[in-house]
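[step 3/7] fold_predict: job queued, chain A
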Amino acid sequence: MRTLDLESEAARARVRARYRAEARFKAYGLIAIALTALFLVIVLSDVLIKGLPAFTQHYLEMTVKVDPAEIDPQGTRDPTVIASGDFQALVRNEMRAAFPEVRDRAGRRQLDGILSTGAADRLRDLVVADPGLVGQSVKFSALLTDDADLYYKGTGTSIRRRGGLGTAAASATTGDVTVTSSAEDFAAELGSVKQVLAERARVLRVEADRVRASLRSQEAGRVALQQGLAAARAANEPTRVATFESRIKDQDAEIEQLARRVAELDQQADALQARATGSGDEALDESLPSLLVAIDGGLVKVSEVGRSKISGTVLLPPASAGEAAPGAWQVVSYVTPEANRRVSDREVAWLERLREQGLVQRRFNWAFFTSGDSREPELAGIRGALVGSALMLLVTLVLCLPIGVAAAIYLEEFAPKNRLTELIEVNINNLAAVPSIVFGLLGLAVFLNYAGLPRSAPLVGGLVLALLVLPTIIIASRAALKAVPPSIKEAALGVGASHQQAIFHHVLPLAMPGIMTGTIIGMAHALGETAPLLMIGMVAFIVEVPTGLTDAATALPVQIYLWSDLPEIAFQSKTAAAIIVLLLFLFVMNGAAIVLRKRFERRW
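[step 4/7] structure written:
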């Protein structure tokens, strides 16, 4: 007779081992959940940090006189004539009037670049709505360009300021000037420049040593080739002799080039080291933080710095060339070098002046939701993509819901159980696992090439997504029908209902919550698909918002794909913002599925 060992030390050891295994399994599960939550938080945080700035936009408050000669020279006050007027010229001229010192052609072009190409749209809308504004001064908000907007959002450069200790005086108020201080106010900046020069000299010497090592290797190789040439001549082998002579010639050219490069690097390093250890003034270049002097309401960009004197160019003219008392002037540093910024020092000075005057306002970017796509980041919106996605989902829902539910009812309740229905069921299950791009190829071949439907249209996109989602809805609907207890149908049949009445009057209403849950999840799946839409041409650049099922359109996932491939920095934020909108849609749809399931769920 077999006895059960529960008291021995070996039995207790087995129990402890079993408990340890169970504890390890729980720990592994908790670690897996924690890692999943961590990765999810990282992804969502990254998307939110990058995308939230796109939901706001900076505007410049302007007052522009609507010149009748430019807008309505005939005095007709016809809105159609007014709408064709050059409002952008009015806005541009007003901007130039705010900075009258900017007279050079390049400066005016930079000044015009602060305003978006759509800056005058609001002014045009106001005047077209009220033609009586022609000839009057109109206050409105002008849209800034993407670079100016990003600068105000903090992606330009940080600015450091410190007061001058001595009395400063500028030699002039325009052009190239010299600012002299009675104290050594620029000694720290001069020291920083010399440290940079010394570091550059060190880097050049390291590079020279690397090239010198390569030169020694080439010279050693040349010695080996000379030995091979001597051996070939001794053996009287003309072919080998010619080969070695050719290789030696190439080697000599390489050695000469490397030797010249070593000499250049040594010379440059010596020159930089001499400047770093010298006591003279130093010139600033675009790879260094920009140094400026704010004096008497003006701003001077430094091109050469000494211990108590700087030379530079006026960016904003001072009120006068008189002396400035200690603490009444500042040494300003733009920390990010000009070469690494989208906005120049001159543009930063203008933007700071506008902000100091209180003319810059930050508002919610409604245009992101009301505008179509654009090549200009500040004008681009997702309205076209949202409408395109909505139209496609409408087509998908109209096709999938009745067809999917009808197929599920037939297969589950009416179809005979034979090899044909088994084959159909297997293929439906297999279609649910087919990669989405295959459906895109099918749509390209059938709907575009064979049926001749319009390319990049919501109708075709909806048909392709219907093919993609239909297997999912059929499987979910069949599962919902199976979940209804058989006693419901049997009771209906027992009181005289027909088979069809029992299914449609009793089983289907009870299965509807599960069917709707599966349908919503399938539609959320369709909303996030990109690959099949790319195959049917919805990757095209579409500016106009679609108004019908056959208009050219794009979808939100495709819009995200298009923006992610553009080089402008502002489109990175737009891409993340569009991802946030898409995730919100998906969360809402999946949340609706959960609510439906909880609301109508019955426990049998």
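[step 5/7] annotate
The mean pLDDT is 88.
Residues 517 and 593 are 5 Å apart (CA to CA).
exit 0
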